[in-house]
């Protein structure tokens, strides 16, 4: 079933994790413009609001004025220069964040055609946990998962065994 309705394993895993921790009665503020995964959340009964494309390193106004009970950021934090300030400005008590993990056998991602599509941070799991702790969040649940690619080679083989993504559910403690 999932293979026909999900573009990839990452979306299936992320939705399963979301459904384990968040009910559809809660309003989600999803960092980033509307995207394929925010559409999947809506198709699965979630009320989702997104940011409007503002530069989140400089402007967290939307985090302050929107009404929401859950904050999500799926593969967004690695693009930010300043995720610390974003985490400080969240106005709810629950969050879900997923990030691509730093891989020893692959350099940080940088698009050749889009100057905004690049990773400033590629975290290790402990770095995201520490960032959350420093900004007043307690990680309640965490998972790592792989994302194999259908290619032949040494790196695709390593991606089959090496966790590529890290997802956490955390609650505000301050």
UniProtKB/TrEMBL annotation:
One of its GO terms (biological process) is methylation. It comes from the Bacteria. Keywords: Methyltransferase, Transferase. Gene3D superfamilies: Vaccinia Virus protein VP39. One of its GO terms (molecular function) is methyltransferase activity. This is Methyltransferase. It comes from Flavobacterium luteum. The lineage of its organism: Bacteria, Pseudomonadati, Bacteroidota, Flavobacteriia, Flavobacteriales.
């Amino acid at each position: 079933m999932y293979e026909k309705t999900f573009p990839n394993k990452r979306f299936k895993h992320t939705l399963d994790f979301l459904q384990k921790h968040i009910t559809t009665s809660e309003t989600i503020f999803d960092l980033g413009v509307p995207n394929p995964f925010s559409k999947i959340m809506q198709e699965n009964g979630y009320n989702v609001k997104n940011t409007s494309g503002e530069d989140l390193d400089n402007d967290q106004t939307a985090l302050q004025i929107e009404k929401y009970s859950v904050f999500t950021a799926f593969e967004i934090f690695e693009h930010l220069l300043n995720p610390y300030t974003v985490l400080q400005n969240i106005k709810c008590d629950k969050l879900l964040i997923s990030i691509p993990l730093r891989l020893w056998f692959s350099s940080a991602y940088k698009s050749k055609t889009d100057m905004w599509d690049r990773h400033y941070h590629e975290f290790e799991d402990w770095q995201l946990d520490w960032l959350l702790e420093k900004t007043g969040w307690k990680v309640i649940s965490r998972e790592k998962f792989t994302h194999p690619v259908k290619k032949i080679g040494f790196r695709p083989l390593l991606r089959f065994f090496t966790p590529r993504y890290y997802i956490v559910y955390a609650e505000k403690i301050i």
